[in-house]
Specification:
Layout (H helix, E strand, L loop, with lengths): L5 H4 E10 L4 H14 L7 H11 L3 E3 L4 E3 L12 E14 L7 E11 L3 H15 L2 H9 L3 H10 L3
Parallel strand pairs: 1-4, 3-5
Antiparallel strand pairs: 2-3, 4-5
Helix pairs in contact: 2-3, 5-6
Length: 157
């Protein structure tokens, strides 16, 4: 079994750098459209990720950043991926800990995973990144997808 690392799932077509979205719905629509064009998701992916986010919010407030890790049911995913989106202006997500609170997310990781063990390992790898604000700020400052992917690879995530 190969090790599940973030860098093995982050693929350039689903890296959005310094984007502007008016809402998490718009963000989901862009990711879903691109993933769909690539043939990586079923057509119900968008509807399901929105529904899951509404039911189980994924916003995480860190000391200096807001992050969100939305994901959906494994059966929607045809080709595994992790989409990484960095935002010029934060997008509001409800807090994972308290859904009456908003988290202004500057970095969003959309998990497109269909193997249960991979999901756990991926979350551990992501938590390692999220808990290191120095690396997270490097991700946020990347000016293009190549730079962003390099930050993830260099840090063995």
């Amino acid at each position: 079994m190969t090790e599940t690392t973030l860098s093995s799932y982050v693929k350039e077509p689903l890296v959005f750098v310094q984007e502007n979205f008016s809402s998490n719905d718009e963000l989901f629509e862009q990711v879903a459209q691109r993933a769909s064009d690539l043939g990586w998701v079923r057509e119900d992916f968008l509807e399901r990720i929105k529904k899951r986010e509404a039911t189980f919010p994924t916003g995480i407030q860190l000391l200096n950043f807001g992050v969100a890790i939305p994901h959906t049911d494994a059966e929607c995913i045809l080709e595994e991926f992790v989409a990484v989106i960095t935002l010029q202006e934060p997008v509001a997500f409800k807090s994972m800990e308290d859904n009456s609170k908003q988290v202004e997310a500057q970095v969003v990781f959309v998990l497109g995973l269909n193997q249960p063990h991979a999901q756990l390992e991926m979350l551990q790898s992501l938590m390692k990144l999220i808990q290191n604000e120095e690396i997270l700020s490097q991700v946020l400052l990347a000016s293009n997808s190549e730079e962003l992917m390099n930050v993830i690879e260099i840090n063995n995530l």
